[in-house]
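Running this now, will post back.
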Amino acid sequence: MTASLVLAALLLLASSLLLAVLPGCAHNVGARSGKLSVVCTIFPQYDWVRQIAGGISEDIELTILLKNKIDLHSYEPSVDDFAKISACDLFIYVGGVSDAWAGDALKEAKNKDMVVINLMQVLGEAAKVEEFKDGMTALDEEDGEEYDEHVWLSLRNARLFCGAIAEALSALDSDNAGRYMENCAAYDARLAALDADYRAFVDGAAVRTLLFGDRFPFRYLTEDYNLDYYAAFLGCSAETETGFGTIAFLANKMDELHLKHVMVTENADMSIARTIISNSAEKDGDILVLNSLQSVTSVDAADGETYLSVMGSNLDVLKVALG
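Update: finished.
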């Protein structure tokens, strides 16, 4: 299938999903007077809008809510944040347990024509339940089954989400619909190219397993490329300490699989990773950081950080970890 046909299929799927789950998208509200107001909860959404609105961005007031490197799990919206959501034209959020507060914000919204994109709903049945793997720190008894909300860490998911965003912007600003779609097509090609780079590397990688001395938010990424993993905690775990059983299990896996690296996420406390290495047979492993894109801010974006630049850097890290 050609790239243009793949994009067309993605856009059609995104459009049908939006129409199915987001009633505000069922009609074209047309171009509005003044700037379109778009509110995003996290950096990946913010950057996707920037890319799709390239050349039209002066007509859009774009806001990212998570600032000062506060990640999705720790964020609590302010009164001002609720006000911005209430009046915006397009609100994009993840739709997982960490932003369940968004439901209350939407109930009180003043703009009844607001278009809402819930990434978990756009993903639909492809959303994955959190996976409790051998060796992980045990869950509290009251913790129930939750969906893994780190959906942005799949380039393939990103292509679907960008299609949904392009459709939503086109509905809100029909005068510029063609430009949104053109920008989306160009950006989709770049996402597809990086996805192909990941696939080409992983297919020839000497190692197929990642070991995390930290939370593990990368399940969507690893399943895209058929990689295995072991980790100290679930992706959404609030735990910061673990028992010796988890340390011993991960250290033994490091020895068994001849792994040379222990992975952590950005801003992680390295103590668990260091303890795993010190309990391994060789005791000389390295710590590598894989960026989960949960702490990138608009300031970082102004300094040149993008979704693609971070995901490209993550591929460079994987080349060391799996090389």
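The chain has twelve helices and eight strands. More later if anyone needs it.
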